[in-house]
Amino acid sequence: MSLHALKLSRPTRLRPALTGLAVALLAAGCTTTPVERQNDLSAKAQSHEAYVASSPKAAAPARYRLQVGDILDLRFRRTDEVNDIANVRPDGLISLRWVGEVQAAGLTPAELAAQIEKSYAEVLTDPKVDVIVRSFQPSRVYVGGEVVRPGELQLSGSLSALQAIVRAGDFGPDARRDSIIVIRQNGAAEPEYILLDFGNSAESRLAEARKKPCSPENPLACDGMKVLRPEGFVLEPLDVVFVPKTRIAGVAQFFERYINQIVPLWRNFGLSLTYLVSRDRTSITTTTP
């Protein structure tokens, strides 16, 4: 049998080697976001236009949201003995006498005041509290996924999603630019997910939207609606900008980048392999030079 006719159709033969390789890559930090997680985020996200149309506060100036490390002065209007100074802990909670712990990080001072009043309603008559931020931590946003330098960015002044991506080193080679997701805290248990499309022109986005009926989820199909430029989307403190990885890059490029370095015969002979990796099936065929 010639090497050109050789086929490896049973992935189990190389699985032990791949398992060891996977462990090495995990240890080296060469991990990728699972496709299932990306799809879950995309399913939750609403378009930039739908977010602005459905959220009256979307165009309003951003309100400060409490962060880990903020120091708060809690002043009760009728019961001075309960006044306290609270530090927002690394887990986002503050500790209150008599009632225990309350979530603080991600809330505005007014939202936290409402939560505190609700917690004290069982032990005080008509509690009213003012939350005063005595010490602020620098505002931050986070950029993750397929950028060159994912991580935390300090927010000083206005910063758009595109500017944040550029400050994180720009899009990585495998970035899916049409599905950038901004995860925004809104004081509720579930954050908001906003989809920004940097990969398609305004004309193509408008044409695609008009293939479906006008609806709150698809406002671009409605009369008078205009495409919003994703470059103009301004971030708020604690926003997370997630740049997903293309599906093909998540699987096929794994082989191209890592397996080819370990099995150089692939570059010298024609081999056809089919592998199942993270529930994605990929076929790779190399040709004889």
From TrEMBL:
Domain of life where this protein originates: Bacteria
Lineage: Bacteria, Pseudomonadati, Pseudomonadota, Betaproteobacteria, Burkholderiales
Entry GO MF terms: polysaccharide transmembrane transporter activity
Keyword terms of this UniProt record: Signal
Pfam families: Poly_export
InterPro entries xrefs: Poly_export, Poly_export_N
Residues in Polysaccharide export protein N-terminal domain copies: 59-133
Name of the protein described by the UniProt record: Polysaccharide biosynthesis/export family protein
PROSITE patterns membership: PROKAR_LIPOPROTEIN
Protein's organism: Aquariibacter albus
